[in-house]
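Lab notebook, bench 4. Still working through the backlog of constructs that have no structural model yet. Next entry is a single chain of 227 residues. Request: give me the C-alpha coordinates for it.
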Amino acid sequence: MPTARSAVVLLSGGLDSATAAAVARQEGFQLFALTVRYGQRHAREVDAARRVARWLGAARHLELEVDLAAFGGSALTTDEEIPKDRAIESPSIPSTYVPARNLVLLSLALAWAEALGVHDIVIGVNALDYSGYPDCRPEFIEAFEAAARLATRAGVEGSRFSVRAPLMRMTKAEIIRLGLGLGVDYGLTWSCYDPVPDGTPCGRCDSCQLRARGFREAGVPDPLLQP
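Model written out:
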Protein backbone atom coordinates (compact mmCIF):
# COMPACT_ATOMS: atom_id res chain seq x y z
CA MET A 1 0.00 0.00 0.00
CA PRO A 2 1.21 3.53 -0.69
CA THR A 3 2.46 5.57 2.21
CA ALA A 4 2.00 9.30 2.78
CA ARG A 5 5.23 9.80 0.83
CA SER A 6 5.06 7.59 -2.25
CA ALA A 7 5.87 8.23 -5.91
CA VAL A 8 5.41 6.56 -9.26
CA VAL A 9 8.76 6.42 -11.03
CA LEU A 10 9.16 5.80 -14.74
CA LEU A 11 11.90 3.18 -14.95
CA SER A 12 13.31 2.46 -18.38
CA GLY A 13 16.39 0.54 -17.28
CA GLY A 14 18.66 3.34 -18.41
CA LEU A 15 21.23 5.34 -16.50
CA ASP A 16 19.07 8.43 -16.06
CA SER A 17 15.92 6.75 -14.78
CA ALA A 18 17.92 4.66 -12.31
CA THR A 19 19.58 7.80 -10.94
CA ALA A 20 16.32 9.77 -10.72
CA ALA A 21 14.73 6.87 -8.84
CA ALA A 22 17.70 6.69 -6.47
CA VAL A 23 17.31 10.41 -5.76
CA ALA A 24 13.64 9.90 -4.93
CA ARG A 25 14.45 6.97 -2.67
CA GLN A 26 17.11 9.02 -0.87
CA GLU A 27 14.49 11.75 -0.36
CA GLY A 28 12.32 9.24 1.47
CA PHE A 29 9.83 8.23 -1.21
CA GLN A 30 8.37 4.76 -1.37
CA LEU A 31 8.73 3.83 -5.05
CA PHE A 32 6.15 2.34 -7.38
CA ALA A 33 8.15 1.60 -10.54
CA LEU A 34 6.51 1.65 -13.97
CA THR A 35 8.20 0.17 -17.03
CA VAL A 36 6.49 0.35 -20.42
CA ARG A 37 7.21 -2.13 -23.16
CA TYR A 38 6.32 0.24 -25.97
CA GLY A 39 7.57 -1.84 -28.90
CA GLN A 40 11.24 -1.00 -28.54
CA ARG A 41 13.57 -3.09 -30.69
CA HIS A 42 15.08 -5.19 -27.91
CA ALA A 43 14.17 -6.35 -24.44
CA ARG A 44 17.50 -5.66 -22.78
CA GLU A 45 16.37 -2.35 -21.30
CA VAL A 46 13.28 -4.01 -19.80
CA ASP A 47 15.51 -6.65 -18.22
CA ALA A 48 17.68 -3.83 -16.89
CA ALA A 49 14.60 -2.10 -15.44
CA ARG A 50 13.75 -5.28 -13.54
CA ARG A 51 17.26 -5.42 -12.08
CA VAL A 52 17.17 -1.75 -11.09
CA ALA A 53 13.70 -2.10 -9.52
CA ARG A 54 14.95 -4.96 -7.35
CA TRP A 55 18.01 -2.95 -6.34
CA LEU A 56 15.82 0.02 -5.42
CA GLY A 57 13.52 -2.15 -3.33
CA ALA A 58 10.46 -0.84 -5.20
CA ALA A 59 7.18 -1.51 -3.42
CA ARG A 60 5.88 -2.72 -6.77
CA HIS A 61 7.26 -2.94 -10.29
CA LEU A 62 4.52 -2.80 -12.91
CA GLU A 63 5.24 -3.59 -16.56
CA LEU A 64 2.75 -2.41 -19.16
CA GLU A 65 2.50 -3.34 -22.84
CA VAL A 66 1.62 -0.32 -24.99
CA ASP A 67 2.68 -1.07 -28.55
CA LEU A 68 3.75 2.26 -30.03
CA ALA A 69 5.48 0.25 -32.77
CA ALA A 70 2.05 -0.11 -34.36
CA PHE A 71 2.27 3.59 -35.25
CA GLY A 72 5.85 3.47 -36.58
CA GLY A 73 7.63 6.77 -36.98
CA SER A 74 10.80 5.92 -35.07
CA ALA A 75 13.98 3.95 -35.64
CA LEU A 76 13.54 2.55 -32.12
CA THR A 77 10.26 0.82 -32.97
CA THR A 78 10.79 -0.20 -36.61
CA ASP A 79 13.51 -1.90 -38.64
CA GLU A 80 14.84 1.49 -39.76
CA GLU A 81 18.60 1.78 -39.34
CA ILE A 82 19.73 3.29 -36.03
CA PRO A 83 21.90 6.38 -36.62
CA LYS A 84 25.54 5.78 -35.74
CA ASP A 85 28.43 8.18 -35.16
CA ARG A 86 26.08 11.16 -35.30
CA ALA A 87 27.24 14.49 -33.89
CA ILE A 88 25.33 14.37 -30.62
CA GLU A 89 25.43 18.17 -30.29
CA SER A 90 23.34 18.43 -33.47
CA PRO A 91 20.16 20.53 -32.97
CA SER A 92 18.15 18.26 -35.26
CA ILE A 93 15.71 15.75 -33.77
CA PRO A 94 17.07 12.26 -34.57
CA SER A 95 15.13 9.37 -36.08
CA THR A 96 15.28 7.60 -32.69
CA TYR A 97 12.66 10.05 -31.41
CA VAL A 98 9.49 8.05 -30.63
CA PRO A 99 6.41 10.19 -31.37
CA ALA A 100 4.97 11.59 -28.12
CA ARG A 101 6.66 8.86 -26.06
CA ASN A 102 7.21 10.81 -22.85
CA LEU A 103 3.73 12.29 -23.11
CA VAL A 104 2.31 8.76 -23.32
CA LEU A 105 4.54 7.43 -20.53
CA LEU A 106 3.78 10.31 -18.17
CA SER A 107 0.07 9.92 -18.87
CA LEU A 108 0.29 6.26 -17.85
CA ALA A 109 2.28 7.19 -14.75
CA LEU A 110 -0.31 9.85 -13.92
CA ALA A 111 -3.15 7.33 -14.26
CA TRP A 112 -1.42 4.91 -11.90
CA ALA A 113 -0.52 7.68 -9.45
CA GLU A 114 -4.15 8.84 -9.30
CA ALA A 115 -5.34 5.25 -8.82
CA LEU A 116 -2.83 4.80 -5.98
CA GLY A 117 -3.75 8.11 -4.42
CA VAL A 118 -0.23 9.56 -4.69
CA HIS A 119 0.73 12.88 -6.22
CA ASP A 120 4.40 12.58 -7.20
CA ILE A 121 5.81 11.20 -10.45
CA VAL A 122 9.53 10.81 -11.07
CA ILE A 123 11.13 10.88 -14.52
CA GLY A 124 14.79 10.93 -15.53
CA VAL A 125 14.71 13.49 -18.33
CA ASN A 126 17.32 16.19 -18.64
CA ALA A 127 17.62 19.17 -20.95
CA LEU A 128 21.39 19.19 -21.46
CA ASP A 129 22.44 15.72 -22.69
CA TYR A 130 19.14 14.75 -24.29
CA SER A 131 19.76 14.04 -28.02
CA GLY A 132 17.39 16.83 -29.07
CA TYR A 133 14.17 15.12 -27.97
CA PRO A 134 11.47 17.79 -27.45
CA ASP A 135 9.76 15.84 -24.66
CA CYS A 136 12.78 16.11 -22.36
CA ARG A 137 12.53 19.87 -21.83
CA PRO A 138 11.35 21.74 -18.71
CA GLU A 139 8.62 23.48 -20.73
CA PHE A 140 7.07 20.11 -21.45
CA ILE A 141 7.22 18.99 -17.81
CA GLU A 142 5.58 22.23 -16.65
CA ALA A 143 2.87 21.91 -19.29
CA PHE A 144 2.17 18.31 -18.29
CA GLU A 145 1.76 19.30 -14.64
CA ALA A 146 -0.78 21.90 -15.72
CA ALA A 147 -2.62 19.34 -17.82
CA ALA A 148 -2.66 16.88 -14.90
CA ARG A 149 -4.53 19.39 -12.78
CA LEU A 150 -7.20 19.71 -15.47
CA ALA A 151 -7.47 16.11 -16.64
CA THR A 152 -7.89 14.22 -13.36
CA ARG A 153 -10.54 13.97 -10.69
CA ALA A 154 -7.84 14.45 -8.06
CA GLY A 155 -6.71 17.65 -9.77
CA VAL A 156 -10.22 19.04 -10.07
CA GLU A 157 -10.78 18.27 -6.39
CA GLY A 158 -7.72 20.30 -5.43
CA SER A 159 -4.78 17.88 -5.43
CA ARG A 160 -1.62 18.97 -7.17
CA PHE A 161 0.49 16.48 -9.09
CA SER A 162 4.24 17.09 -9.12
CA VAL A 163 6.44 15.72 -11.88
CA ARG A 164 9.87 15.43 -10.33
CA ALA A 165 12.72 15.64 -12.84
CA PRO A 166 15.76 15.92 -10.56
CA LEU A 167 18.26 15.57 -13.42
CA MET A 168 16.79 18.27 -15.64
CA ARG A 169 19.72 20.74 -15.45
CA MET A 170 22.54 18.20 -15.14
CA THR A 171 25.10 16.89 -17.60
CA LYS A 172 25.60 13.15 -17.95
CA ALA A 173 28.83 13.38 -15.95
CA GLU A 174 27.04 15.19 -13.13
CA ILE A 175 24.29 12.57 -13.18
CA ILE A 176 26.83 9.77 -12.92
CA ARG A 177 28.65 11.42 -10.03
CA LEU A 178 25.32 11.94 -8.25
CA GLY A 179 24.31 8.35 -8.80
CA LEU A 180 27.60 6.95 -7.60
CA GLY A 181 27.20 8.99 -4.44
CA LEU A 182 23.82 7.32 -3.95
CA GLY A 183 25.25 3.87 -4.53
CA VAL A 184 23.77 3.28 -7.98
CA ASP A 185 25.29 0.24 -9.69
CA TYR A 186 25.43 1.36 -13.30
CA GLY A 187 26.35 -2.17 -14.30
CA LEU A 188 22.66 -2.96 -13.83
CA THR A 189 21.56 -0.36 -16.39
CA TRP A 190 21.39 -0.43 -20.17
CA SER A 191 21.64 2.45 -22.64
CA CYS A 192 22.44 1.14 -26.14
CA TYR A 193 19.83 1.47 -28.90
CA ASP A 194 21.34 -1.20 -31.13
CA PRO A 195 23.48 -3.86 -29.39
CA VAL A 196 25.82 -5.94 -31.54
CA PRO A 197 25.09 -9.65 -32.07
CA ASP A 198 27.14 -10.74 -29.05
CA GLY A 199 24.89 -8.59 -26.84
CA THR A 200 27.37 -5.83 -26.04
CA PRO A 201 26.66 -2.11 -26.60
CA CYS A 202 27.36 -0.82 -30.09
CA GLY A 203 29.31 2.19 -28.76
CA ARG A 204 28.20 4.30 -31.72
CA CYS A 205 24.53 5.25 -31.29
CA ASP A 206 23.59 8.56 -29.64
CA SER A 207 22.83 6.89 -26.32
CA CYS A 208 26.14 5.03 -26.24
CA GLN A 209 28.03 8.20 -27.13
CA LEU A 210 26.32 10.21 -24.38
CA ARG A 211 26.95 7.48 -21.83
CA ALA A 212 30.61 7.12 -22.82
CA ARG A 213 31.19 10.87 -22.66
CA GLY A 214 29.51 11.03 -19.27
CA PHE A 215 31.71 8.37 -17.73
CA ARG A 216 34.80 9.85 -19.36
CA GLU A 217 34.05 13.33 -18.01
CA ALA A 218 33.13 11.91 -14.60
CA GLY A 219 36.55 10.26 -14.53
CA VAL A 220 35.26 6.76 -13.76
CA PRO A 221 35.00 3.59 -15.85
CA ASP A 222 31.65 2.32 -17.10
CA PRO A 223 31.04 -0.95 -15.21
CA LEU A 224 28.94 -2.22 -18.11
CA LEU A 225 32.10 -2.33 -20.23
CA GLN A 226 34.38 -3.92 -17.65
CA PRO A 227 35.55 -7.50 -18.32
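Notes after review: The chain has a mean pLDDT of 94. Residues 6-218 form a domain with the Rossmann fold fold (CATH 3.40.50.620). Flag for follow-up if needed.
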